[in-house]
From TrEMBL, chain A:
<feature type="transmembrane region" description="Helical">
    <location>
        <begin position="263"/>
        <end position="293"/>
    </location>
</feature>
<feature type="transmembrane region" description="Helical">
    <location>
        <begin position="305"/>
        <end position="321"/>
    </location>
</feature>
<keyword id="KW-1133">Transmembrane helix</keyword>
<feature type="transmembrane region" description="Helical">
    <location>
        <begin position="24"/>
        <end position="44"/>
    </location>
</feature>
<dbReference type="Pfam" id="PF02653">
    <property type="entry name" value="BPD_transp_2"/>
</dbReference>
<dbReference type="InterPro" id="IPR001851">
    <property type="entry name" value="ABC_transp_permease"/>
</dbReference>
<keyword id="KW-1003">Cell membrane</keyword>
<dbReference type="GO" id="GO:0022857">
    <property type="term" value="F:transmembrane transporter activity"/>
</dbReference>
<feature type="transmembrane region" description="Helical">
    <location>
        <begin position="225"/>
        <end position="243"/>
    </location>
</feature>
From TrEMBL, chain B:
<dbReference type="GO" id="GO:0016887">
    <property type="term" value="F:ATP hydrolysis activity"/>
</dbReference>
<keyword id="KW-0677">Repeat</keyword>
<keyword id="KW-0067">ATP-binding</keyword>
<dbReference type="InterPro" id="IPR050107">
    <property type="entry name" value="ABC_carbohydrate_import_ATPase"/>
</dbReference>
<dbReference type="InterPro" id="IPR003439">
    <property type="entry name" value="ABC_transporter-like_ATP-bd"/>
</dbReference>
<keyword id="KW-0547">Nucleotide-binding</keyword>
<dbReference type="InterPro" id="IPR027417">
    <property type="entry name" value="P-loop_NTPase"/>
</dbReference>
<keyword id="KW-1003">Cell membrane</keyword>
<keyword id="KW-0472">Membrane</keyword>
Amino acid sequence: MSSGTEAETGGRQRLWSPVRVSGAVSRLAAAGALIVIFVVLSFVAPSFLTADNLFNLGSQTSVKAVMAVGVTLVIITGGIDLSVGSVAALSGVVGVLLMAEHGLNPLLGVLGGLAVGATAGLVNGLLVSRVGLPPFIATLGMLSVARGVVLITTGAVAVFGAPDSFRVLGQGVLGPVPVPVLLIVFVALAGHVILTRTRLGRYAYVLGSNPEAARLSGVAVSRHITAVYVLSGMFAGLGGMIAASRINSGQPNFGEGLELDVIAAVVIGGASLFGGRGTILGSLIGAFLVAVIRNGAVQLGIGTFYQNVLIGLIIWLAVWWDRYQRRKFNNEETG
Amino acid sequence: MGEFAQVGESEVEPLARLTEVSKRFPGVNAVTEVSLDIFGGEVHVFAGENGAGKSTLMKILAQVDRPTSGRVEVAGAPVTHRGPAEARRLGVAMVHQEFALAPDLTVAENLFIGQEPGGFGWIRRGRERALARELLRRVGLGVRETRAVRSLSTAEQQRVEIAKALAVDARLLILDEPTASLTERESRELFTVLGELTAQGMAVCYISHRLDEIFAIGDRVTVLRDGSVVTTVPVGGMDESALVRSMVGREVDDLYPRTFREPGPVRLEARGLERPGALRHAGLTVRAGEIVGLAGLVGAGRTELARSVFGAEPATAGSIRLDGRPVRIRRPRDAIAAGIGYLTESRKSDGLALQLGVDVNITLGRLPMRGGLIDLRGQRRVAEHYRESLGIRVPRVDRAVSLLSGGNQQKVVLARILRTGAEVLLFDEPGRGMDVAAKSEMFQQLDQLAAEGRAIVLISSYLPELMNMCDRILVLRAGRVVGELEREEYSEQRIVALATGAGGEHEQRD
Ligand SMILES: Nc1ncnc2c1ncn2[C@@H]1O[C@H](COP(=O)(O)OP(=O)(O)OP(=O)(O)O)[C@@H](O)[C@H]1O
Ligand SMILES: [Mg+2]
């Protein structure tokens, strides 16, 4: 069969194809917005570009970024995880309790927190994949259940008493680099490798794109769906532990509404809530964008209420821009 | 039809005129400077290889897509490309392969979506139904206008789409591979309807890969190659081999390359498969090196038989043996592990992950792994290999499958199943949407697989395909196998008689 297409149109000579770039467009846009906002803030808010604040910003972002990695996986399968905020609180509280009351060393305490998150994720995953609940419902239930369990265990009072060394997780530095920032890098790399190089990641995209095609290709659908929620729960648990370490306590009210910032980060980063699309790098940029806006607003003395409005606007803008670019690239020759 | 042939260039105003129309996509010239007239009363066939630009050209005519350059005129007035609604106003309607019907609404409601009779927000339902009945009569569809569209067969839904075009007084009707999922009889009925419509002065643009139907209903044929018009001629002025030559640019000497050999031992044996409403004590045996065809009307249980062997919808009773050993297949994964492969009937709904790359789709059944991780280079190599060997037209193998032409998407599905290396292969309408050359190439591959000792099941609604490729043909009706024909017994009449239950052939009952 003849195949003259590329030879005649020069499709092969082109080093980058617009289609490929379109996938990155929203990411580029979000990254551009991030840089602009960063530069502007440096000028208008004198306290913004200080070592202290940047340090703070890095570790603030880390909670959202780490959680966004897990939620990205879920969203790529066409699911959603609304429970990450509550699960983070549960992990933080249980982790601290394990150290304070059962004398676990910090490493085991943190692992305990992750295990709690993973367990909550497992329940989510089984509810979605085996019981057949819609992800929205399954994780909405978990949002409530996990929060309830936190409040019951703590009596709505913060828990303290973790050993000092636990602070390293959220407050430590390795040379000039804050540990939470290292954690972002580590988790993001792990997430990236999972998504691009493992069966789980590949199947996540396929399940999000066409679940029936996945099933007919022999993909173990339930198992992989479950695994994705387990990872999301586990990363939420890690986020919770970082947060607990930063304030050196387990706060029962931590993370209320946090899921919205995390989902916002993922969506701003170019993932599609319909599934099949999304990247770790994009979500990471999204997480930084959200964190910088919140941080910058604080520096400028803008209240949370206005921050919320701002973030909502950015979600609209990001998704509209993404769609606009996509339509353009799909239908028109450019460059 | 037929009388059109004497219409010359100048005497009649064309209904639609394309002037130097081009359409570029990133990396692809889909349509290049096409100039063309379409006249009322003609069936104008568009033919050409997969990816030649047929669908794109028709979408431009129907204003679904905007040309990169060039002019489109309908009835002498330039077209603004404001969208399908505008096209309808001008009297141009297109029936896509995926129907644009609301499955839960009734036939009558579907016919008038967007232009319901009545006013001030009210719908005059009695009038709507009366108008609907008239339209259904014109398209020869004998179903009640109050039926939900969901309950109609593919062929019936297609007829509703055509009726919808009549509802807006379309003068130019575009059909993109309309017979791809119809049986012979349904196709013939469609042709009758199209004949009546053209007799009333309508123009029909008709995309097809089936040579027989091009000659049966076409008045003129335009052959496209790599986006350009090779020729536009009256159908009578060309024979099959000339048509193929102008499409492909070379001879395709053997449409059905098959070498029959003595089959080996039984590889697949399915017995007494039951599935309520779909299969009644159905079964089949396939030997090594054999291609066994499944014939029957749409809904007769051919797909259901294949899918239950594959475990997509497992049988509630019955047994399956592979190479003499009983196997239990409850889901596709079991079948795949046992060495069974299935090429799905409908690539869009359950075959392809459309947003993902050609490479991802091809390797989905068997990921190239290296050190526990996906080998991205290996994946690319595999995809390039199939792009070459099956002639998949795509500038880069990581491009989303949704951007490929229909036939090229089908080749991707084929590549995936070929790659799995399964020993027992179930092909459900594998040639759907492929051009003649690609089909011939595919059948070559099937023959090769058979020669390697694999067992192959071939489902096709196109009898010549089955009769030329298969060692045996099983005929199904209403979920059971009603006949089995050896090669020397093949005849279209016999198969049709068995499939429809006419002709008093003996039924094979148990
Ligand atoms: N949205 C799009 N983006 C990029 N390329 C496209 C797009 N739509 C079509 N193409 C390309 O344009 C070319 C022509 O496609 P078209 O669908 O018109 O082919 P066709 O003649 O209908 O083929 P087939 O017989 O397989 O249906 C193909 O190479 C296809 O990949
Ligand atoms: Mg086409």
